[in-house]
């Protein structure tokens, strides 16, 4: 089954929202977001190598990772504000190339039954310029490629 990414940015808001369904139980989908060795296998587009330098996956924990390719190394960091197993993650997200432009990200994990799940997300940017820059950066293509890699990973869990 093809599970397309639905990404939109409502007009006159600072938010981006997405929905994606997976042919995997919600527990496996959540685990792929919780365990660093699994995250490294799918987060980001093809052609990037990921290194996780900090990962404290719990409420009030934090993370830092880099993506690298021939063009350079790009760092990202944030705080996990709320983690509820198999249900919800609230975190901040900062691209270190644009300091002080921190997004607030909400992710809801939904059990659809029959071994299927849905991930819904909402990312709130600090201003419209930051939101529009993310949207024009190729973010949608990167998310699509990452979720395609996640589909393959989930088959092995």
TrEMBL record:
InterPro entries assigned: ASHA1/2-like_C, START-like_dom_sf
Pfam families: AHSA1
Residue ranges occupied by any Activator of Hsp90 ATPase homologue 1/2-like C-terminal domain in the UniProt entry: 23-155
CDD domains in the record: SRPBCC_CalC_Aha1-like_9
Family: Belongs to the AHA1 family.
Protein name (database record): Activator of HSP90 ATPase
Taxonomic lineage from the root: Bacteria, Bacillati, Actinomycetota, Actinomycetes, Mycobacteriales
């Amino acid at each position: 089954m093809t599970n397309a990414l639905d990404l939109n940015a409502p007009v006159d808001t600072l938010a981006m929202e997405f929905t994606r369904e997976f042919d995997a139980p919600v527990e496996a989908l959540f685990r792929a977001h919780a365990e660093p060795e699994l995250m490294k296998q799918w987060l980001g587009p093809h052609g990037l190598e990921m290194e996780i330098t900090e990962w404290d996956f719990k409420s009030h924990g934090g993370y830092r990772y880099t993506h690298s390719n021939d063009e350079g190394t790009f760092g990202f960091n944030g705080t996990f504000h709320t983690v509820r197993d198999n249900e919800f993650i609230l975190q901040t997200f900062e691209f270190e190339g644009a300091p002080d432009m921190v997004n607030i990200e909400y992710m809801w994990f939904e059990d659809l039954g029959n071994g299927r799940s849905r991930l819904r997300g909402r990312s709130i940017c600090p201003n419209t310029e930051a939101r529009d820059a993310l949207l024009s950066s190729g973010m949608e293509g990167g998310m699509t490629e990452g979720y395609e890699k996640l589909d393959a990973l989930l088959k092995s869990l």
